[in-house]
Structures are given as C-alpha cells and as structure tokens.
Amino acid sequence: MNLVTNNKWIGQRTIRPDGMDKVTGRAQFAADTTMPGQIWGKVLRSPHPHARIRSIDTSKAEKLPGVKAVVTSKDIVDFPIEKGAVMLGIQDMRWMCRNVMARDKALFPGHPVAAVAATTEAIAAEACKLIEVDYEVLPWAIEIDDALKSDAPILHEFNKFDGKPSNIVGRLEHKKGDIEQGFKKADIVIERTFTTRPVHQGYIEPHACLISVAPDGKTTIWSSSQGQFMVRAMTAYLTGIPQSDIRAIPAEIGGGFGGKTIVYLEPLATLLAKKSGRPVKMVMTREEVMRATGPTSGSKSTVKIGATKDGRIVAAHGTFYLQAGAFPGSPIRGAAGCSLTPYDIPNLLSEGYDVCSNRSKVAAYRAPGAPIGAYAVECVLDEVAEALKMDPLDFRLKNAAKEGTKAAHGPVFPRIGYIETVEAAKASPHYAAPLGDGHGKLRGRGTASGFWFNAGGESSAQVNITEDGNVVVTTGHPDIGGSRAGIANICAELLGIDYRRVSVIIGDTQTVGFSNLTGGSRVLFASAMVVTQSTEKIIQTLRERAAKIWEIDPEAVKWENGAAHPVSPNAGQFEPLTLEELAEKAPAMGGPIGAGVQLNTQGADGGFGTHVCDVEIDVDLGIARVIRYTAVQDVGRAIHPGYVEGQLQGGVAQGIGWALNEEYIYTKEGKVDNPGFLDYRMPVCSDLPMIDCIMVEIPNPKHPQGVKGVGEVPLVPVMAAVANAIYNALGKRFYALPMSPPKVLEKLEGPMQQAAE
Amino acid sequence: MAKVHVTTSINGEPMEFLCEPSDTMLDALRGPLALTGSKEGCASGDCGACSITVDDRLVCSCLMLAVESEGHEIRTIEGLAQGEKLHPLQQKFLEMAALQCGICTSGMLVASDALLKKNPDPSEEEVRFWLAGNLCRCTGYDKIVRAVMETAAEMRAQ
User: Fold this and answer.
1) A720-747 as b/e, with b when 16 or more CB fall inside 10 Å?
2) Chain A 283-342, CB below 8 Å of chain B: which residues?
3) Which of A13, A21, A22, A32 to mutate to test the interface with B (most CBs of B within 10 A)?
4) How far B92 CA lies from chain A's nearest CA (Å)?
5) Is A523 on the interface with B (CB under 8 A)?
6) Which tens digit of pLDDT belongs to each residue from A564-587?
7) Of A387, A595, A599, B2, which has the fewest CB atoms closer than 10 Å, so is most exposed?
8) Which residue, B34, B49, B79, sits at the end of a domain?
9) Contact map slice: A 458-497 vs B, CB within 8 A
10) Is the dihedral of CA A364, A366, A367, A368 positive or negative?
11) What domains sit in chain A, N to C, each tagged with a CATH number?
C-alpha cells in the first residue's frame, strides 16, 4: 500500500474548482446553451399504456409553417429482436431503440411516438397535435401482480418464461450452502413479504440537449448526462452516424443519481438536426421527465430468515420481484446481490425476477436495487433480533461479514469495514441518547445496514503543465457531486503545490480518452487512479529535466513540495528547481510537459453503511417525521470530507422521501397521476433534520489513496431504518412503502384508537 | 402575435426587452435577456430553481409574466455578487460545500438572501421553512442550512 501520509490537501475541505461558476449563475447546464439558427424539438407521446401503432400520418404536421423536420421510428436504426442482444454497457440497443421511439407498439403513457422540430417551441408543440396516430388500444398491466397473472396482457410476445409467453424477462440467483438444511437448524424463522412503489430519481434539472449536424455529418452534442461517451455511443448506434463524427460535450449536470445514464432526447434531436439542417434544442418538461424517464422499480419481495437461539443466522431466502417497466432491465442484481451481503450466512438463496409492465423503462437509481432488497432484509432482521431479545446492532455484529467471508454473489471479502460501521453506530452519541419526550407524539428509533458493490472500470485522464507552471487535469467523467474537488486535492498533493493551481476540466469525447459513466460510485475511485498515474509520469519527467539541467542522474533527483531537489548533498549542491521554473525552461529542455493514462481500473471494494434513525409520529395526522438521523459509512478514504458528507446526507434525504412519501400514483386509465413536484412529494428543507455523518476510514489497499466509492451506500439502509424506527414508535410494522400519512392513520385506527377511547 | 415592449430594471441596470404576452419572466430572463443563472426545474413554482426578487419580494420567475416586470426592480443570481466580490452567502456556500450538482444553487442563494434581508437572525426552523420552496435533491439540505445560519451570524457580527 502506497498511501500518502502527512497530507496537505487530501482530506481538506477545499473550495471546488467549479464552485465559483455555480454560485454566480455562470455554470452552463444543458438548457443554458444556444446556437445561431437553433430551432426547437418536441416529442409526441402515447396517451395509452399499451397500444399497437397501426399507422402514423405526419403530413399535416409537416405542412405547418415553421416546421422543419419530423421523425418517427422509421428514422431510427432498428435492432431486430430476433438477432440477439446488442449490448452497450448494461443497455441492450434492441430495447433502447424501442424506448427512444415506440416501434410497432406503445408500451407506456408517455412513450415517444414521433418528434418535430420547428422554429419555435410553440409551433413544434402545435405540430405534434397534428400528427395522426392510429392506435389499437390493448389491455395493460402496471403492477407486478397484474403483470404476473396467468391471463395478463403480455408486453413482449417473443419472451418466454417456463416455456410460456410471460412478462418475466429475466431471473438470477445467488446460492450458498443448502437453505433447506439451514432452516432445519433454526430455532426461529421469520418470513415476510414487502412491497415498494416506483420512485423517481428526482434530479432538479430536466433532460436537455442541443445538437448540431453539419452537412458532412459532423455532429456536436451539448447535453446533460452522466457520461458523454455513453451519449456518443448510443446516439451513434441509434442514428447510424459513426462515433468518430460525433463530439459529445458534457454540460454541467443538474443531478442524475443514475437517471441520466441512458439517452432519451439525443438520438431524436440528432435526426431532427440532420433532416432540417439546423441545430436542434430539446428540453423536457417536468411532466415529461416524470412520465417518460427513470424511475426505479416498484417491487414485491419475500424474505425468510432463520436463526438459532444464540443469535446466529443459519439460513436466509430472499425472493425479489422488480418492475422493469416497458423493457427488460430492472436492477435485480442489486436487490438479490446486495441485500444479504453484510452478513455471514452459511445457507442462502437470493433470487431476482425482472418483470415488464406498462410503465416507463426503469433507469438506475443510486445503488440500483440494493435499497429495495435492504428494506425487506433489514426489517426481517429486526424482527428476528426482537424475537431473540437481542439489540439489533448486536445481532448484526454477531452475524457480520468480515475479511474472509464469502459473499453469495461470489467474492471472498478482503479487509472490509462493515463491523466498524456497526460499532461506530453503537458508540455514537445518537444511539446512546434517550429518545426524549415527544409531547404527545410517539417516538421511536431504528437501525439498518446496507451494502453496495462499488465499481471501477474504464477511465482516462490527461494532465498538462501550463507554460506558467500551473496544472490542467482533464478527465472524462461528468462531475455530479464534487469530484473535481477531490481530483484537484489529489493532484496538488502529489505535485506538492497549492490546490488552487490545479484546474480540473471535464473533457469532451473527442479530446480525452474513453471514460465510462459517472455511476456505480466509481468516479473518484477510477479517476484518482488515472490522475495519479499521469501525475507520477509528469513527476518523472520533471525529475529528468532537473537532472539534465544539473547534469546528474535522474535517480539523484527527488520531487518534493512542488520542486526538484537533489536527493542528498552527495548528489550535488543545487538550488531547488520549482514547477514554474521547469515549465519556463520546457521549450529548451525537451518540450511540453504532459501525460495521459487510460486504464480499466480494478479493485473497487464494496461499501458498507449502518444508520440510526429517530422518528416522531403525530397520531392525529398520521405524519411520521424523522427528527434525528446518523449515517455511518466506511468511506475508505475521504479525499474531500465535505463532499463525502454531502453524498451521505443527500442519500439519506432521498431514502427518507422514499420511505415516507414518494410514489408513483396511477389513474384508472393507467397514467401517472402525480407527474409534478407538487404531488410527487420529495422532501423539502422543512421535512428534514440535520443529518449527522460518521465517516469510518478503512483505506482500500488496492487504491493509491485508499478510495472506496461513497455515493450509493447512503441510500441503501434508509427505508429500513425509518421503518424500524416507526415500528419502535408504534409497535406496528409496515410491509409496504411509502409510510405516508393516510397509511399511518390506517394503521393507527383500531387498537390505537380503542386505546385512546 | 405582436410582441410587447417592456421597460424594467434588472440587477440595478435599466433594461428593455420584447416578449410574447404569454411569456413568463423566466422565459424572458433565459431568452432575450440571456440571464441563464435562473433555472427551470418544473415551470410550476414548486422547485424554486428560478427564484428572483421583484422589488425585494421573493418570486418564482416561472409563475410571473414577463410583462409584469414593467417598471419594477428585478434581481437575479447574476446580481448577487458585487463585481469581483462575492456576497457572503456565495462565499459561505463555497466554503461549506453547500452545493453539489449546482442546479438549485442560484435559487437557494436568491431565496437565502431574501430571508436574511427580512430576518438577519433566523432560527434553524425559520431557515428550513423559508427554503421549503427550494428543492435540492443532492445535499439533504444540511450544509445549505448551516451555510445560511453561519452567514447570518457573520453578517450580524459585522
């Protein structure tokens, strides 16, 4: 392990390099960009949850003055189902080409059917109304139970499960030991079924892009996404334009949380721009975002856990049905692969089922699948602990995974920090504090743990020394939550210079090497590796340059505090040569100083967290309120503690929303009934308490700075922690999310009311 | 449809622009006035990303017609700093990592500034309720509330 010690910048709360632009309104988000000659694109969307498209007549729309181009599925490259999967990352182009524009069938209300570009947004919207679509309306299914009925309408007739046409489009399992034998050894077995509703990532910035296609096909895309290379590749696949002709420029991204890891508008805008010869801008409305993007799955899970009297878990069985929406791809891997992973369980079966239904195709959402699985598992664990009369954290400690534990999804754990998170939660002032008087409101405390895989993968960086001796770092990952600050800290630390001398730029697809998505909690892990190696190459160059000037061996030069020094007086007596001096001498001493590195990074350790939550319940109104929250997480190494805490706090806030209020509500016509922020009730400032963070730092030995991904774990335990706290307050358990006021009131009616009478 | 001529003041500068009668103030700011610091998150007054002040009153610019700015004093995020000198709130947001993706930040700052003008010594609860109209999906609000409280304390001390 080569950890930097006595850090000057790593671990400091530096001011982020892009901060000034963001507090002054200068930062350019996708919808802020304009271009000469720009026109506007709008999408016509299906009003039906399920309908065969018999024909589309666009002639009236095309004749409307101001309309410049119309596209339908005919214009998009088709990836025929029968030819097999065409994978790009985790996305299959067969589904992507049908998701960006309905082909044969519309599969959810909001499914794009055609797109128009016109000189104004209003004309484009008017033209959409003139497009005549002949639909054959079909029966539909939105909820899992409806989609799984024997007579359910089948979304994709080609799909078979158990030899029959089915909406189950995928299954995976993780297995360890023998669960039947395991349950036989158990003194106590608890089995429960849980449901969760689909929730949206809820980024504040709607999807937007501006695209220009020159007559020779050279295409420039400005868009908001979690990966400009993903945008380039998917747009190329779906439009037929070669990737080398597409320059995807990453705009600042206004939140994503996984929801901006696929394209919606870019292929349509590219085709409209190509057809019209004009740059095309497209911006979704909030309603379009809610109806036709994201969300994550709704779910139905059954979890059975068996333990012996002494508190050892001997067997566990989890079955997780997740809604994929219109196309295959729900995060069953996260649900089935993460939820039991914090524990050392000898006999285990964890199954995931991917179920299609007539809702928008799900997109990743922060540790996709894992929070859904953890909600079920961590609630049952609490029940088992209670039955055993054990403290819930002691029960978790007794069964905790540690170094050498073989996880059900394959790996044998290296040194991990799960136990430390439980111990830190137990030792926290929060866990020791009395719940206090609720003044008529009921109070309760709950805990839960969570795990996320974390990821490495492809990353590229270029580090260049400027002529005045400062540094420009270019990486290929959109900065979604402060990664530029972490990169600046690392580069400044390695070079031994003030971090303000390091400028961090997100390169576009044609200026920096391939870099995979900002996703999987991978960005600082991976970019730190390529930036470190690039910087080390530069330091080697700087040592060689100094050696040449001093006419000594490069091995006799060390780099320290931003300057070359002789390693010892024996190497010769020379005044240090600073970075500025070496940059100034560069033209005469071998030319520009820069280095780039591309890697497929490996060694991302999984992340663990343990949370403590206090709630207060207003029994008259049914409102459950989180009044205190502590998130403990093994973060590996906090390169910028401020933004690590920010990840923890933000994840917790999202989880509280998921637990207490957020859900998609449908009309009886099968349409989303709450497609705006007013009715899709995300937590606002006055809904939340301060969120305390305890960062446990067990450095990742496979990373130069010890980094582990931090962004996703914080959402994983939250719904279970809130549910366990509500149980503690009420003595009644919820098996369905969200635990919104009407549902809490329902629970309170009956025994609680009788008690009051 | 004929465009309407509007004479107003934006961030202390006299300003004239043309707009459709149905355009919102946010449309005018982001369109003819090229002030894109105000963001559109919802167009329904629920997210606060487009917050401005009109004669010192906090308003969602997506809920106001552009023609209504005639003769009034508009302030946007672009007017918060004085030249090179950041407003203390902007400085504190940077120092305390009170932003992540940054899309809500303009609105948060305009709203926080309006609060501190009205009440230089707000309690945490007052800050939380005042900012309840400004959605942030990244931060969990913790650092934003702390930054506003700390700025208020420093401004009172001066």
Assistant:
1) bbbbbbbbbbbeebbeebbbbbebbbeb
2) 283, 285-286
3) A22
4) 10
5) no
6) 999 999 999 999 999 999 999 999
7) B2
8) B79
9) 480-482
10) negative
11) 19-27+455-601 (3.30.365.10), 33-138+205-254+260-292 (3.90.1170.50), 299-364+375-452+605-749 (3.30.365.10)
- CB contact under 8 Å between A204 and B103, yes or no, is yes
> pLDDT: is A442 or A749 the higher one?
A442
A656 CA to chain B: closest CA distance, Å?
10
Give the model confidence (pLDDT) of A134-192 as tens digits. 999 999 999 999 999 999 999 999 999 999 999 999 999 999 999 999 999 999 999 99
Q: What is the pLDDT of residue A2?
A: 40
Same domain, B101 and B131: yes
- The predicted pLDDT at position A7 comes to 85
Shared domain for B10 and B67, answered yes or no, is: yes
One domain, residues B75 and B94:
no
Distance CA B150, CA B125 (A): 14
Query: Do B55 and B117 fall within a single domain?
Result: no
Which residues, other chains included, contact A83 with Cβ-Cβ below 8 Å and sequence gap of 6+?
A94
Q: Which candidate in B84, B95, B103, B110 is best for mutational testing of the A interface (most A CBs within 10 A)?
A: B103
CB contact under 8 A, B78 and A24: yes
**What tokens appear for A105 in the block?**
């069938």
Closest CA to A381 of A309, A447, A300, A298: A447
What is the side-by-side order of every strand in the sheet holding A607-618?
A442-452, A607-618, A623-634, A691-696
B100: contact with A, CB 8 A cutoff: yes
Give the model's pLDDT for residue A755.
54
| Cβ within 8 Å, pair B94-A252 | no
For A676, the closest of B44, B109, B145 (CB atoms) is: B44
pLDDT level of residue A1 (50, 70, 90 thresholds):
very low
pLDDT digits (tens, 9 = 90+) for A657-683: 999 999 999 999 999 999 999 999 999
User: Where a domain ends, among B54, B79, B104?
Assistant: B79
Tell me the pLDDT tens digit for each residue of A49-89: 999 999 999 999 999 999 999 999 999 999 999 999 999 99
Q: What is the sign of the dihedral through the CA atoms of A94, A100, A103 and A105?
A: positive
Q: What is the chain B residue with the closest CA to A257?
A: B138
Q: Are residues B102 and B72 in the same domain?
A: no
Q: Which of B87, B137, B143, B145 to mutate to test the interface with A (most CBs of A within 10 A)?
A: B137
Same domain for B105 and B69? no
> At residue A749, does pLDDT exceed 90?
no
| Residue-averaged pLDDT of chain A | 96
- B22-51 residues touching A, CB cutoff 8 A: 30, 35-44, 46-47, 49
A503 CB-contact burial (10 Å; exposed 0-12 / middle 13-18 / buried 19+): middle
Q: How many domains does chain B have?
A: 2
Closest CB to B140 among A482, A649, A677: A649
Q: Which domain holds residue B97?
A: 88-157
Q: Does A690 touch chain B (CB under 8 A)?
A: yes
The pLDDT of residue A748? 86
Whole-angstrom Cα distance, residue B104 to residue B127?
Answer: 16
B115 plus B70 within the same structural domain: no
Q: Which residues of A touch B86 (CB under 8 A)?
A: 20, 23-24
Measure A438 CA to nearest chain B CA, in Å: 17
Taking CB atoms and an 8 Å limit, are B102 and A252 in contact across chains?
yes
- DSSP readout, A652-672? HHHHHHHHHT----B-TTS-B
A722: CB partners within 8 A, 6+ apart = A446, A613, A615, A624, A626, A655, A656, A659, A660, A739
In sign, the C-alpha dihedral spanning A574, A578, A580, A585 is: positive
